[in-house]
Design brief:
By secondary structure, the chain is of the alpha+beta class. The protein has helices at 43-63, 65-74, 78-88, 95-108, 110-113, 123-134, 139-158, 186-195, 201-210, 214-218, 262-271, 292-306, 315-326, 331-338, 343-350, 363-366, 369-384, and strands at residues 4-8, 11-18, 21-28, 31-40, 225-226, 231-234, 237-239, 242-244, 253-256.
Length: 386
């Protein structure tokens, strides 16, 4: 039984078989359609198709119901298209970011929307969902989760699956708390470095004198340190036991070893084992799993010993940036050293540390014939008043 054809109301519908399953093929408005009947290719099922299924399908085709139903069936559910979205952006995200996105999706998106068609989700559904999340999560976390979902809808628009993103009518939650940067003073930086245990002095010196992220510091290998050229190559970062590329493409950079940092690196090389791979290793000769161990074992005790207000280790990065900018260093150099995409990001974060000397503004106006003449005239008139 190779095939079977029937003409119903001018339509030619062909019944064929593939991999032991029955299919129908027909043309409608010059477009070829092929659909499976989800039936095994047997004599009994062929008779069933001829007598009942095909006439019913032909009725649905002529009424247009078949095409409406097919269009609906082809619209994917959130769980299916979210996976497509992850694949589309895989090369743009690091492994840690990818794992974080998938975890958030599994915990906070799928329980509500995994089996819903993406075209059925309304702004009101998203508002209710977002409000539910805000009952137990911070605004920052909700925005993070929302970004994952929003990206999926934008990808669906690009594929012409939906026309509008329902998030367009859903307000982004606002952060209630604002992170306050509390940079250390130069004298405090020096005391922290010198008070730290010998094996960690270089760690804090790098943090305060390069502004590198703490994950980038524990990811440093000796092959990244070029003392003769005075360069540190930032090529990786470590977090939660996973080694990955730095946070952004612009974070892959070469940064200067300042004169003040050089002695700490030389001394650290001297006290470390000759066969060590990473700059900072545990007693088991392994790189640090995360920066939490460094914070608990070395950072907090130093601040407590010095009687300094506790701040997390990320403030080393802010201390470097504020120190350099407030002392007039080139903003482009600071931006590159921090690994920012461009100087506008650096300025936005640290503009308040830029010191501008007080001086007479618009001096050129006073020296011009127009305004300078008027100023002299006004001054003389005021001097004549009793």
């Amino acid at each position: 039984m190779n095939g079977w054809s029937q003409i119903i109301k001018g339509q030619i519908m062909t019944l064929t078989s593939r991999n032991g399953k029955l299919l129908i093929t027909f043309y409608h408005q010059s477009i070829r359609y092929r659909r499976s009947l989800n039936l095994d290719d047997t004599k009994k099922n062929r008779k069933l198709a001829e007598r009942e299924i095909l006439p019913e399908l032909m009725y649905m085709i002529n009424s247009g119901e078949f095409f409406n139903k097919t269009a609906q069936d082809e619209i994917p559910k959130v769980g299916v298209f979210m996976e497509i979205s992850f694949i589309l952006h895989k090369d743009d995200r690091g492994k840690l970011t990818e794992d974080s996105y998938r975890g958030a999706c599994r915990l906070h998106i799928y329980p509500y929307f995994e089996n819903k068609r993406i075209d059925s989700i309304k702004p009101s559904d998203l508002i209710k969902w977002q409000n539910k999340l805000r009952e137990k999560l911070s605004p920052k976390r909700v925005k993070f989760i929302r970004t994952i979902f929003n990206t999926m809808f934008n990808d669906a628009i690009k594929d012409e699956i939906i026309e509008k993103n329902p998030f367009k009518h859903v307000s982004t939650p606002k952060d209630k708390a604002i992170k306050i940067r509390k940079p250390f003073q130069i004298e405090e930086m020096g005391k922290i470095i010198e008070t730290a245990k010998k094996q960690m002095q270089a760690f804090f010196a790098i943090g305060f004198l390069t502004g590198m992220r703490t994950g980038e510091i524990i990811g440093l290998k000796w092959i990244d340190i070029h003392l003769d050229e005075r360069i540190i190559q930032v090529r990786r970062s470590r977090r939660a036991g996973i080694e990955d590329v730095p946070k952004t493409p612009h974070s892959i950079r070469d940064i200067d070893i300042l004169d003040e940092l050089l002695p700490y690196l030389i001394e650290h090389r001297r006290i470390m084992r000759e066969d060590s791979i990473y700059l900072f290793e545990t007693q088991k000769r392994k790189p640090y799993y995360s920066t939490s161990k460094v914070s608990w074992s070395y950072w907090k005790p130093v601040l407590a010993k010095l009687g300094l207000e506790y701040r997390d280790m990320y403030q080393m990065r802010h201390s470097f940036a504020s120190m350099m900018i407030s002392n007039g260093e080139d903003i482009l150099w600071v931006s590159h050293t921090l690994g920012h995409k461009d100087s506008s990001i650096t300025l936005k974060a640290y503009a308040k540390y830029i010191k501008v000397p007080k001086r007479k503004r618009a001096k050129f106006l006073k020296e011009s014939d127009t305004f300078g003449h008027n100023l002299v005239t006004v001054t003389k008139k005021s001097e004549k008043k009793p």
